[in-house]
Design goal:
73% helix; globular
C-alpha cells in the first residue's frame, strides 16, 4: 500500500506541475491569463462556514492567505487524483503504465471542476455563466489531458 501511495503522490505532483507548465506556456505564447488560485482558495476557505455555492466568488469576503490556500488546494487535489488512480489501477499497472487509463481518469475528473468548483464559485455548471463557456470547457479538457500525461510520466518514474 505504501508503494501505491508514494507512486500516487509522485504522479499527482508531476501531473499538477505539468498542468502549471501548460498554463505558463499558454500565457507566454497565446496571451492566455494565468489561473488566479486566490479565488479557489477563497472558495475553499468559505467551505467550513457552510457556503458551497456563491453567486460570484470575487464578491465573497476576502480571506487571509487565500492565494496560498488556493495553491495548496490545487496541489492537494492533484496528489489526491494521483493516489486515487494508483490505487484504482494497482501495482501491475504501475509496473507497466499505459496512457489510456490515466487519460480516461483525468477526463472524468473534469466533472469535479464542472459540477462542483465552477458552480461553487458562481461560474455556473461547466462554466455556463462565463463569457465563452465552450472555450473554458475545451481548455479544461486539454489541461486535463496534459494532467494525464503527467500522471503517466509520474507512473513511469
Amino acid at each position: 500500500m505504501a508503494e501505491i501511495i508514494m507512486a500516487g503522490v509522485i504522479m499527482g505532483l508531476l501531473a499538477t506541475g505539468a498542468m502549471d507548465l501548460w498554463a505558463l506556456a499558454l500565457n507566454r505564447f497565446a496571451n492566455q491569463p494565468l489561473p488566479n488560485w486566490a479565488m479557489p482558495g477563497r472558495w475553499v476557505a468559505h467551505l467550513p462556514g457552510g457556503t458551497v455555492f456563491h453567486d460570484a466568488i470575487a464578491e465573497a469576503p476576502p480571506v487571509s492567505g487565500e492565494l496560498q490556500i488556493g495553491w495548496t488546494f490545487h496541489y492537494a487535489v492533484g496528489i489526491l487524483y494521483g493516489v486515487a488512480l494508483a490505487a484504482i489501477m494497482g501495482t501491475d499497472w504501475l509496473a507497466q503504465p499505459t496512457f489510456l487509463p490515466a487519460w480516461i481518469f483525468s477526463i472524468l475528473m473534469v466533472g469535479f471542476g464542472w459540477f462542483l468548483l465552477q458552480p461553487g464559485m458562481g461560474l455556473g455548471w461547466a462554466a455556463a455563466k462565463t463569457p465563452n463557456p465552450w472555450k473554458v470547457r475545451i481548455m479544461n479538457l486539454v489541461a486535463h489531458t496534459v494532467f494525464a500525461l503527467g500522471l503517466w510520466v509520474g507512473a513511469m518514474v
